[in-house]
Structures are given as structure tokens and as C-alpha cells.
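wait is this the right file?? whatever heres the structure
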């Protein structure tokens, strides 16, 4: 009996398990469909890809409604720094992402470089170029694309880049060597591109291909270019020695030790700096005759009294004829490390003047070194003998010419009468 009940309950238990299993398979699993629907609705429509843009802009003859060329060379873009980074057109032209129908509107916002190059854009905003564009909406001042190009930008280390050191003079010269741009932009310094090309720096770049030769950015900077009157400018008067010293370190050290460098360091804006003697864009070799003769004139712009007395001497008279094999200013005083006469380090100090003279006059003695290269015939205290000798010669000449002039005047009536008498006899 008991055995029968056990069998009955066992069968019943198995049947119940089978029913539960069948019910679980038949009941559909509840899945929250709403979030999936919401997510799909929130997903933005994809913006145009590069292929979408190049479908039109890849045509070499593509132009907009105004007739302006809007073609993009796909090969050049791919080979550019942006192409190498696999950037999309919409990364720079952000407002294009909202368009799904093409062609899009012809007027779009300009590409914004800030998203990737924020630091450089901030530097540019402080520059003279940005200031000019803020003053006038139609300004021709340079923007990013003028120096870096548009869709074919390359890193400055690439020889094909517009900002490659050997290409920079040409890039800057597209504005600073164009008379139309110079006139429209009111660039007071004029065509500096041609001046630079003829300079020692320009020739080193264009003819010798020297990467270390100074180009535009070496002196002016790249993005943060400021006008020379700005104290933060690299070409501000007091900053120039440090900028030039970046390449000419040894000369900078000499200049700092000299009287000119010391005066400039103390804030004396009348003290000469590199550009005063060498100019800014037309720097020439210092060992050619034209430079040596020009140096005398440059020194004379500050030392007016000294250039006047120098011109009265044998040295000055010969150099005025175009000869350079006689002493000029730098031969006696030095070039960069110039000291006052009372300074023992000076080349014309009492202790060193004889050795200075012997650089040209090997057999010169003590008496020879007493020669005054700046003798002033108008200064009785400094040169009494010369003063009185010059005065005597002056009055002697006046007396001689006066006597003979008076003689000629008095003789003229008598001579006229004699000629008439002769004419009457004949």
C-alpha cells in the first residue's frame, strides 16, 4: 500500500516539474525597450565625411557662387600634416557637421585653429598682424593660412613647408616684398624682403642654404610678432643685443664689456645697438671696402665732433677718396668692445696707444704715438700750435688774395684806358 503511494507522489512530482519548466519557456522575457528607443533617438546624425566633401571640392575647377576657387587637391591634403593625423574636414570646419543635404550654404564660418592650436592662436592675438586686422576688417595683415597654407600644411621641418627655415624669406616676402600689399597695409619700413635678399644673412640662406643663418623668425619671432616700439618685441631697441647674441654670442660678450653695451644695459636709448651700426635688413660683410667706409659715416652720426676732426686728418682725407688702407674708427678704437680713452682696456689709452699704432706702422716710436688723430684747429686749449698756425694761414690767405684782388680792381681802369689809347693809334 505504502509502495503504491510513493509511486503516485513521485509521478505527481515529476509532472509538476515538467509543467513549471514548460511555463518558464512559454513566458516571454520582459526587456526594457524604451531606453533602447530613447538612445537611438538621441544619437546625432553623422556629419559629412571627407569623401562627401571631396565629391565636390575634389574637382580642380570647383568654384563657389562668387567665382572663387574652392578646389582641394586630395593628394596634397592626404600628404599634409592634417592628412597624416587622419583629421576630418569637419574638425576644422565645425559648422559643416550640421549639414546633411548638399551642396551646403556658400557662406560658412572660417576654420578655427583654436581647438588644436590654442597656445599659438593666443600668441597671434598679441601680434601686430592681429592688431591690424582688429583695426580694419579689410586688413591685408597675415593670418594662419597666409604663412601655413590651407589644406596642404606641412610641419616646419619639412623642406616643402612654407615655414621651413630656407623657405621663410619667400613666404614673408609674399607680403613684405609686394608693393601693393605694402601700400595697402601702410607698412612704413617698405620692401624689406629685397633688402634682406641682398644682405649677408639672405645670401647665406638663398645661395649657401645655411640652416643656421638668420631668417625672419630668428629676429622677429613667429606667431607673436610685435612692432619694434613694443617693449616685449624681440626687435625692441634694448632687446636687440640679446636677439643678435643668440647667434653671435662671442660678439655679444664683447659688446657687453664695452662702453656702448654698458650704457644700453643701464637704459640709455641713445647708446648704439647692433642695428645702428649694421642696420636691420641690409647687413653686409664687415671685411669689404664699402662696409669699412660706411662705418666711418655711422660712427659720425653720434660722434659728430669726432668725425669732423677725423676728416681733417690724413687718415680722413684718404678715406674720403674711397681708400681703406688707412686707419678708420674701428682700427683705433675697436669694433664691439670699445672703451673710453681713460680706461686701461682702451686701445687708445696711454699704455696701449703705441701698440695700436704699430698695427699699421710697425716701426712707430713714442713720438709717433703722440700724433693726434682728432686734432682740432678750432680748439686752442687742446691744440694751441695748430690753432695759431691755422689762424695765421687763414689771415695770410685773406691778405694775399685781398692785395691781389685790390690790385686787379685798381688796374682794371688803367688797363681799359691803355687799350682804348692803342685802339685810337691804330
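ok assuming it is, sequence goes like this
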Amino acid at each position: 500500500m505504502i509502495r503504491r503511494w510513493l509511486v503516485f507522489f513521485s509521478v505527481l512530482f515529476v509532472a509538476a516539474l515538467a509543467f513549471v519548466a514548460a511555463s518558464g519557456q512559454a513566458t516571454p522575457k520582459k526587456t526594457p525597450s524604451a531606453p533602447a528607443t530613447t538612445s537611438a533617438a538621441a544619437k546625432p546624425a553623422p556629419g559629412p565625411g571627407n569623401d562627401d566633401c571631396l565629391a565636390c571640392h575634389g574637382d580642380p575647377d570647383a568654384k563657389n557662387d562668387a567665382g572663387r576657387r574652392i578646389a582641394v587637391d586630395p593628394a596634397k591634403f592626404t600628404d599634409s600634416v592634417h592628412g597624416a593625423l587622419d583629421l576630418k574636414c569637419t574638425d576644422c570646419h565645425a559648422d559643416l557637421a550640421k549639414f546633411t543635404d548638399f551642396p551646403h550654404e556658400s557662406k560658412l564660418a572660417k576654420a578655427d585653429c583654436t581647438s588644436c592650436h590654442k597656445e599659438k592662436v593666443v600668441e597671434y592675438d598679441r601680434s601686430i598682424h592681429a592688431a591690424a586686422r582688429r583695426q580694419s576688417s579689410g586688413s591685408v595683415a597675415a593670418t594662419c593660412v597666409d604663412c601655413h597654407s590651407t589644406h596642404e600644411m606641412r610641419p616646419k621641418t619639412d623642406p616643402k613647408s612654407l615655414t621651413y627655415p630656407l623657405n621663410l624669406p619667400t613666404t614673408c616676402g609674399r607680403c613684405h616684398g609686394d608693393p601693393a600689399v605694402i601700400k595697402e597695409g601702410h607698412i612704413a619700413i617698405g620692401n624689406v624682403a629685397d633688402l634682406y635678399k641682398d644682405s649677408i644673412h639672405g645670401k647665406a640662406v638663398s645661395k649657401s642654404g645655411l640652416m643656421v643663418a638668420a631668417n625672419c623668425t630668428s629676429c622677429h619671432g613667429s606667431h607673436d610678432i610685435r612692432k619694434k616700439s613694443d617693449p616685449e618685441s624681440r626687435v625692441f631697441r634694448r632687446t636687440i643685443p640679446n636677439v643678435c647674441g643668440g647667434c653671435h654670442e662671442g660678439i655679444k660678450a664683447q659688446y657687453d664689456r664695452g662702453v656702448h653695451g654698458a650704457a644700453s644695459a643701464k637704459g640709455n636709448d641713445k647708446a648704439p645697438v647692433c642695428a645702428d651700426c649694421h642696420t636691420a635688413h641690409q647687413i653686409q660683410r664687415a671685411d669689404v671696402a664699402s662696409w669699412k667706409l660706411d662705418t666711418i659715416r655711422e660712427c659720425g652720426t653720434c660722434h659728430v665732433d669726432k668725425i669732423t676732426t677725423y676728416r681733417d686728418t690724413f687718415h680722413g682725407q684718404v678715406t674720403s677718396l674711397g681708400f681703406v688702407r688707412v686707419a678708420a674708427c674701428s682700427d683705433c678704437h675697436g669694433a664691439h668692445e670699445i672703451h673710453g680713452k681713460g680706461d686701461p682696456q682702451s686701445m687708445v689709452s696711454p699704455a696701449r696707444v703705441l701698440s695700436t699704432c704699430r698695427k699699421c706702422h710697425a716701426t712707430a716710436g713714442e713720438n709717433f704715438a703722440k700724433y693726434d688723430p682728432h686734432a682740432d684747429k678750432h680748439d686752442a686749449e687742446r691744440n694751441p700750435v695748430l690753432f695759431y698756425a691755422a689762424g695765421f694761414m687763414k689771415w695770410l690767405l685773406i691778405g694775399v688774395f685781398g692785395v691781389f684782388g685790390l690790385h686787379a680792381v685798381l688796374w682794371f681802369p688803367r688797363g681799359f684806358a691803355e687799350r682804348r689809347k692803342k685802339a685810337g693809334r691804330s
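Residues 69-99+116-225 form one domain. so i think its the right one actually
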